[in-house]
Each structure stands twice: as structure tokens, then as C-alpha cells.
Amino acid sequence: MEFILEKKAKWTDMVSSVAPGFGFVINEKVKKIFEEFMLPPHVFYPINICSKKEVRLYYWFHFVTTGFWDWVDREQSVLSLRSILPNER
Fold first, then answer.
1. Is 46 within 8 Å of 59 (Cβ atoms)?
2. Is the pTM of this model over 0.70?
3. Of the candidates 4, 7, 40, 76, which lies 20 to 30 Å from 56 by C-alpha distance?
């Protein structure tokens, strides 16, 4: 995964984004802080963040949902797929 920042964007420890869900985009500094604590099930996926001519390594800190299907009444549930993109709704 790779993000390209807007031209006026400034480097920060945590990058805001509308996607991906279930986590945060963080740099190595924040990753080390998070690793010092008891976290819920998770994975750190490497991400390249590009700005102008510079590329930096960040991580998508993704929460792993365990036992999700145990919470769902499959017989009474309906699944709908929906795009987050306005032109594809």
C-alpha cells in the first residue's frame, strides 16, 4: 500500500485517512510506543508515504477482529455491499 500526500501536507507521526479502516497509519516512533503496551490482536503492515520527492516508511496498525462470526446471527442477517466512493453508490 502506498499513500501520496498533498503538496502542502507536513510530515507527522500519525496520518489521517478515510481508509483503511480498523486501524491507524503511524510512523516507526509511534509503532515503538504502541509495542510497549498490551494491545488487542493486531498487525503492523508496512506502508510507503510519498511527499514531493521523499518516501518514508509508515505502518498501518490494523486491529484484528477475532470471533466476529460468533457475534452474527447468520439466519437473521442480510449482507449489503456498498462503496465509500460517491460515484459508485
1. yes
2. no
3. 40
Q: How many CA atoms lie within 13 A of 42 on its CB side?
A: 18
**23-70 residue pLDDT tens:** 788 999 999 999 999 888 888 999 999 988 889 999 988 887 777 778
Cα–Cα dist 50/36, whole Å = 28
AA letter at 20: P
Q: Can you tell me whether residue 75 is helix, strand or coil? A: coil
Q: What is the pLDDT of residue 68?
A: 76
Of 39, 9, 14, nearest to 25 by C-alpha is 14
**The C-alpha cell that represents 27 in the structure block:** 510512523
What does the alpha-carbon distance between residue 55 and residue 47 come to, in Å, rounded to a whole number?
A: 10
